[in-house]
Amino acid sequence: MSIGLNAYLTVAGLLFAIGFFGVLLRRNTLVIYMCLELMLNAANLALVAFSRYNLTEKNPMMDGNVFVFFIITVAAAEVAVGLAIIVQLYRKRQSVMVDEIAVLKEP
Amino acid sequence: MIDFMFYFLAALTVLSALMVPCSRNPVNGAMFMIVSFVGTAALFALLQAFFLAIVQVLVYAGAVMVLFLFIIMLLNIEKTQALKVNRGIAALSIVAFLAMVAAVWFLFVEGRAGPFPALPAGAVPASLTKHFGYELFTKYMLPFQVTGFLLLIAMIGVIYISKKPADETVDATADAKGANR
Amino acid sequence: MQTPVTLLFLILLIPLISGILIGLFCRKQGALAMVLSVGSAGLQMALCLYLLWSEAWDGTTIHLNYEWMRLGLFSFNLGFLFDKNAALMLFVVNFVGFWIHLFSAGYMKDDEARGRFYLGMSIFMFSMTGLVISSNLMMMFIFWELVGFSSYMLIGHYLTKNAANAANKAFIVNRVGDFGFLIGIIWAYWVFGTTDIATLQSLVAQRPDLLITPISLLLIAGVLGKSAQVPLHVWLPDAMEGPTPVSALIHAATMVAAGVYLLGRIYFLYTPTALDAIILIGGITAVFAAICAFGTRDIKKILAYSTLSQLGYLVAAFGLGTEYGHRPEVIAEHGANAAALFGVGAANFHLTTHAFFKALLFLGAGSIIHALHHEQDIFKMGGLWKSMPVTSITFAVAVLAITGVPPLAGFHSKDAILYIAYLDNPITFYLLTGTAMLTALYMGRLWFVAFWGKPRSVNASHAHESSWVMLIPLIVLALYSALGGFMVMYPRALHFLLHDSVLHPEGASYTLMLAISLIAGIGGLVLAAVIYKPGAAEDRVQQKAPALYAFFASKLYFDEIYTFYVKKIQDRVAIILNFLDLFLVGGLLVRGSAGMVGLLGMISKLSLTGNIQTYVYWFLIGIIGFWLYATGVF
């Protein structure tokens, strides 16, 4: 087996870059949110890869995997809250486009 | 065989992920997202993290993405306004994207971030999931509990946020302007 | 319950409680406020007389100290220092205070703001009592300011423009003196490490070299303001805008005498140079104010100048007596505390009698003003003998007392002062004797013009005797003005007054001196009758010698000089400072820095588009910067 850690990290990095690209490019809050999830997922992949490449028979450390487990849980909670906020936002503004809800800007 | 599997899954994951920001319709994007998540789950399996692979499919590809789709359909955003991207913003984001890809190439493909450890020799213990569970409920007991509590809080928060405001009749824009001040 | 300390506490706190009650509940209930205030003053006087007459206090000095707060090494004490002189002053304040309170019950009967008036009176009684028994200079200063505040409040009682100006003037002029006083206290603390009067005395006795003239002079500055000595005298004549009982209580009998009391309280803190300055200031004030008294027709202002003159007399007497007591041969004869005996004794004795007859004069004037519907011009009075017999008789007693006719109180006290002056410094003796003559002259002018002849105005012809509430205080004070030179009139504890501290001279030189002073006093009265003619309708000096009258009325241009100074010099400096403040501090520093921040804000506002993606770019730049730093690129 010749696949090194760097191959997994490359995949994770590319996923992260794509997610970031999506966040920058799209105006739809839902798509931006999905891209954020993508970036989280990229981090998860990198963590699992690290964990695997430090694993030995005598010392089966699972810390990376546990970490990923927690990330998935928290991400699920975050998605629930975030989507609720988006729905509420849509109710108020009739839009989910970020440039139309730029309320942080000074008028 | 495993090499081939890796390249195949990696290509699948990355390409379908790339389709997420690039598809006009958010529903399509969500579908590609599911593919990408399943691909990631397969990569987890390649890395011997079977439990996480299952969780990934169940939670992400299952629950989370269903929620996304549900909301997209609920809000029913017209497709015409879906992809109306400013040229400047597009150029800028493509530049940023390419810069990040270059950084990834520089660090991992050319290996400047190395040296990377090789795959440890010897067989992997058969009972990895058992070890995972063991660590989760001993060493990480407190974070585990806290996470459970976090889920509860998120649940309460979602219920509170999704409650209909008492005076729905108030003009939405006036309300927003009020928030600005 | 009957220890002197408890009694002192009660005497101090009764008027405060009355003041608090009036201030909180009786602002609109004038009658209730009057009952409270007069009642508290009466209770105060009763307790004071009990303390001094009974066996409760054996005459030893009471010295108490409670630590109030500690700031680092500086500990702030509150306490009592109650010695014989304090007892005398307490007696004067409480005794005269009560009778004036009683008088005001009649005088202020129709006033609309009686609650406010009695609030001020009660606060004054509290602060004056506190001032008298304070054990250290800091505490004394607090009460010193409190009496100033109540004086301010009461001068402005009538809420007219003039009253407001007079109140402000009194307060501001006092501020000048008090500032010097405060610096003096701080300097004394810096040198001696304490402001406790008893401790200071022992320290000065041990290390006389530590005492320096600037401290003495700064402490005198407080006296200049409060006792209205030249050049800070300008507020006192104007302060007559207040109600007459206030003029009697605060601006004649007690508060202005507090300066003299302070002199006596810290008599050991004066260097010989400072004593010379005290004599000089007192002498100048005595003569100057006596001259000014000829230039006004207002009965209260004449009395105010008379008060000024007498205060100058007191200050000079203190200086002379203390200086006399420092002489080696006097110390040899009378013991080491001769300085304390003669200076303080002479000044305090005259202070006491002066409080009686000056309060009587003011109350008499108040009675007349009340009867004449606020007519204050003496040339529009006349014929008061028939319409107001009691007032006229008591007023006559007071005039004779202040002139120094034996055996009235003024004779004894003035005699003591003049004798010390005669022994110590002949020039001052003739100066003071001249002042005594001038005093007799202007008091004669007032008396002959205001009381004799026929009524010269409608108000005067309709005059009628005041009510008994106002007459009783007059009679009591007349009794004391007449017999105040004899021991029986005073509480047991105050008998030292005539025993120890007043010289009882005999011999040829004394007879000569007595003859001179009697001729000056009685001669002055006769001269007044000759010059001004009893019952004259116009000021004869003004008619015959207008230039001289103009000189009297000019008051030596003190007010004009101060006005000139404030308008032409102080205001211009203030304008320049104001410009600097507006331009440098306000413009450059304050607005400049604010404008700088505003400019930065406007620039940085451009980055806040409200668009999430812009923030993501900032985030990206931040991460790149962090990454470059972490990998050591820079």
Description:
The complex is a heterotrimer of chains A (107), B (181) and C (634). Chain A is 72% helix and 0% strand. Chain A is mainly alpha-helical. In chain A, helix 1 packs antiparallel against helix 2. The mean pLDDT of chain A is 86. With 181 residues, chain B is mainly alpha-helical. Chain B is built from seven helices and no strands. Chain B is globular, with a radius of gyration of 22 Å. The C terminus of chain B is likely disordered. In chain C, 74% of the residues lie in helices and 2% in strands. Chain C is built from 27 helices and four strands. In chain C, strand 2 and strand 3 form a beta hairpin. The mean pLDDT of chain C is 87. At the A-B interface, helix 1, helix 2 and helix 3 of A face helix 1, helix 2, helix 3, helix 4 and helix 5 of B.
Main sheet makeup of chain A: none
Shape of chain B: globular
Which structural class is indicated by helix and strand composition of chain B?
mainly alpha
Radius of gyration of chain B: 22 Å
Number of strands of chain B: 0
Oligomer: heterotrimer
Strand content of chain A: under 5%
Uncertain stretches of chain A? none
Which two protein chains have the largest interface (Cβ within 8 Å of the partner's Cβ), and how many residues from each? A-B, 77 and 93 residues
Q: What is the CA-based Rg of chain A, rounded?
A: 18 Å
Instruction: Please work out how many helical segments of chain B DSSP would assign.
Output: 7
Output mean pLDDT of chain A. Answer: 86
Helix content of chain B: over 70%
Order of helices and strands of chain A: HHH
Mean of all residue-level pLDDT scores of chain B: 83
End-to-end gap of chain B: 62 Å
**Uncertain regions of chain B: pLDDT < 50 for 5+ in a row?**
170-181
Task: State the distance separating the first and last CA atoms of chain A.
Answer: 60 Å
Strand proportion of chain B, as a percent range, falls in: under 5%
Shape of chain A: elongated
Count of helical stretches of chain A: 3
